[in-house]
Amino acid sequence: MVDVDGRRLRLTSLDKVMYPETGMTKGEVIAYAAEIAPTMLPHVAGRPITRKRWVNGVGTPDDPGQAFFEKHLDEHAPDWIRRGVQHHSDGDKSYPIAGDRATLVWLAQMGAIELHVPQWRFDPQGHPANPDRMVFDLDPGEGVSLAQCAEVALLVREILTAMGLEAVPVTSGSKGIHLYAALDGAQTSEQVSAVAHELAKALEADHPELIVSSMRKTLRTGKVLIDWSQNNGKKTTIAPYSLRGRFRPTVAAPRTWEELADPGLRQLEADEVLALVAERGDPMAAVTAASAGGPLATYLSMRTPGATPEPMPASTWGAPATGEPRFVIQEHHARRLHYDLRLERDGVLKSWAVPKGVPDDAGTNHLAVQTEDHPMEYLAFEGTIPAGEYGAGGMTVWDTGTYEVEKFRDDEVIATLTGRVGGPLGRVRIALIRTGERDGKAQWLLHRMKDQQPAGPPARVEEGAAAVRIEEGAPAVRVEEGAPRPSRDRTAAAELPEEPPWAAGLETTPSSAPRPAREGAAPRPARSVRRAPGIPVPDGEVPKPMLATAGTVGMLARGDWALEFKWDGIRVVARVDDGAVRLVSRNGNDLTAAYPELAALPRVLRADAVVDGEIVALDERGRPDFGLLQQRMNLTKPREIAAAAASVPVVLHLFDVLELAGTPTIDEPYSLRRERLERLVRLRDDVPVDLPDVVAGTPERALEEARERGLEGLVAKRAASPYRPGARSDDWVKLKLSRTQEVVIGGYRRGEGTRTGRIRSLLVGVPDEHGGLRYAGRVGSGFRERDLERLLERLRPLETDAPPFEVPAIDASDAVWVRPELVGEIEFGEWTRTGVARHPRWRGLRPDKSPHEILLEP
């Protein structure tokens, strides 16, 4: 897992060799993309990208790798990647647009070695604009050297200079040379193609022994083809600074004319290009700076330098993103007071005028009118725009900060904004939804997502004769001094009575569930669980749990982190309401009936609440044992559940609180939620619920302690982080001691010998880079006989004729295929070079997980 300018990306197969002749790995391809991004982005920003992908590398001359072109961007791609739609005869296609380094890194992760772009960009309305540059592809025929291509490049340059155009050469990384010249955007692609064609024909007439302009291959031998056709609006050219899918990692490298005159001119490779750019910069920067259009062209056209204090950017193309995305909300006292919301995107600030500002609650939508893109310097702009100038009036920064984007498309934006500490906005999740167009301006709705706390001062609520104040950020209701109490007591955790009123008169039923011993204390004997028979399950919403990302100790070097042990069990979120309990797994399954002993959870909570935790089964030494927990999973018959509860007791480890006394706490920082949880929980020996301590010491020492205690690892949580239901966030980082992987069962091999009529081994898969599944190996150990019987019962109804992923012939010869619907978990040594788990051992089914939820662990 890596952080790329505020975007969290999962990188896989980093040691896969993509260029066998040089040994360049996928990790090095990704590193090149990340390092060249600031130089490359201006040349591809705003343009639809066609990708040429070599998922398994380029291969060798004797065994070349398979490649394929890809235009449409699949739905599984991150929502924060900008998209542009092109109309084709076979339907509309959504292309990626690279405006930031994270997008280039993601494309490299997907095996997109070559990036091809047209000579035009999308305009602010999302339509193809006129081309902003002209290109000539000088393609050498058989027997022609690169030096001869350079000779033709000089001839083309002479004509372009006479036309008032400055050309920049690019050694293509393949065989020839490309020439680029900036245009003013006044001509269509058809017009530019026609001019380029005439130029090529004129040079062919003057130099028939050296140049050809016809596309007929039979005419190219011994000559240089001037390919003018790539100026067609439907065609693309390899992007400047893109790698090539040759057998060596060559690059489409912009060059100076001095370099082109070098007798030793040759194609350059990735490391050489990086060194050359660091030494002398980008020769093609002038083309982008001189080209017409750009997202800031409208902004500049509406302002007169010197007449307004507003910032004037040097380029119409903005600046590539280099950090976490930022936002600003400005209070604008123009003809009418309104607020301007601006979000950093593709090197500029995407802007909306919002007359009424951000809504205070989810019940109100506010109009937002999209305006012209603004330069990044506007993030801090405050001042008075003089009368007579566009937007005249005073402008101040209402709030500013950073934001996390979930979706950023031409018709929908979903993001969480975090303002300044103590600022008026706080942390709010918003949605911008495009509704249409009026007077040439895009109309949007600004919506505040309903899981947010209202902005502004504390709200007053009348409850009978009692005046009740909900303090901002407080988890409970406090009755004002002198006012009568409401009929239902929902006081703060610290003020709650010792015994909730509903606990009186509960029946006592025996239970053998042990309490986990505190460190250094003797184990406690099993006691009884008090349970109220017939208490209904609460029907309130149970949020999905927040999920952690896989990481390393090094990721915790900066920031304030809290450390918790990682428990090897089943994640649940529990709602407690008036003595009723509902347990829900992370994939939405109701587990309440499966763990009857946890009906006593209300007895250890001082108030109604929604809490997050993990159900674990403990071995004889008090350590979590997932294999033991398997005996409690997948049971539905009351008699089986009761028998398993008596023989395999469980404990619910609590570690977070999402709601307390009817008030959400998810927007509070982890440190405060932890304090509230500790005040909320009152441990009892006769209730199988525990509140594990936060782990003291450094991450390295805590991880070693986890190893000594036989635990799975650690979970590190940022002290200031909110709780994000259903989201996987790098605010929580898991560090595992053993390698485990959730897998999808795609088939099984028939048993032999003592396993005749049963399962010999399972054939399992994991997510691949295309959103599907790839084979991860066969698993034949770690099963108990009872496991094999139950597995066979579950798999038989799923049998099918087709394998869900490609399996080697030796493993597929006697396979029985099943629909990929069941998720399990394996423990293994390492991933082999072919992507198969080495020495896998079955740990059990994961009914709490769905196939689409699993991630490939690094």
TrEMBL record:
Keyword hit for DNA-binding: yes
> Does Lipid metabolism count among this protein's keywords?
no
Pfam families with a match to the protein in the record: DNA_ligase_A_C, DNA_ligase_A_M, LigD_N, LigD_Prim-Pol
- InterPro entries xrefs: DNA_ligase_ATP-dep_C, DNA_ligase_ATP-dep_cent, DNA_ligase_ATP-dep_CS, LigD_ligase_dom, LigD_PE_domain, LigD_pol_dom, MtLigD_Pol-like, NA-bd_OB-fold
**Which residue ranges have biased composition labelled Low complexity?**
510-526
Q: Which reaction does it catalyse?
A: ATP + (deoxyribonucleotide)n-3'-hydroxyl + 5'-phospho-(deoxyribonucleotide)m = (deoxyribonucleotide)n+m + AMP + diphosphate
Protein known as: DNA ligase (ATP)
Species this chain originates from: Agromyces tardus
